[in-house]
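Handout, section 3.2

Students often ask what a structure token actually looks like in practice. Rather than define it abstractly, here is a full record for Penicillin-binding transpeptidase domain-containing protein. The first block is the sequence as you would receive it.
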Amino acid sequence: MAGLDLWDSYMKKFGLGVVTGSSLPNEYSGTINYYNLESTGSILSSLVFSSWGQEGNYTTLQLAQYAVMLANKGKRLQPQFVDKITTFDGKTIEKFEPNILNEVEFPDQYLDLVHSAMTEVKKSGFDGFPYEVAVETGTSESDIARQKVNNDLFIAFAPGRIAADSC
């Protein structure tokens, strides 16, 4: 189980399978199925399925937080829905600053490779966009009403580099 425990610890460090810290009422932490060895068959198959994005069901907000963490090179931020509260005439009543929940340390070369690979993913709809877009796509299966249903996934961020074809 050491391999699954290590995998699970990384998923949680990246905000998958835990609440996001958003303070939304009744926030769902997601569903982790990779410990269910009866359905996966073995620890090794659980790790393989998990690495493909199977055996874990996460919320949209968790996936957004995960994408931000990749963009910030390991800093998991508490989701913020507003940056400030103002009066009708623009006077700031309260301002909110970013809150780092945790940080995962990796050598820059690892995260640079992730960013680079994500910018190479085939995508459409970004023609003429002035920034590179880093993308990850995927499909996971769920059993719903005794049928396999595909769940498509798309996460993205713009790393801030001006796209070469925009110069």
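Discussion prompt for tutorial groups: The mean pLDDT is 88. How would you have guessed this from the sequence alone?
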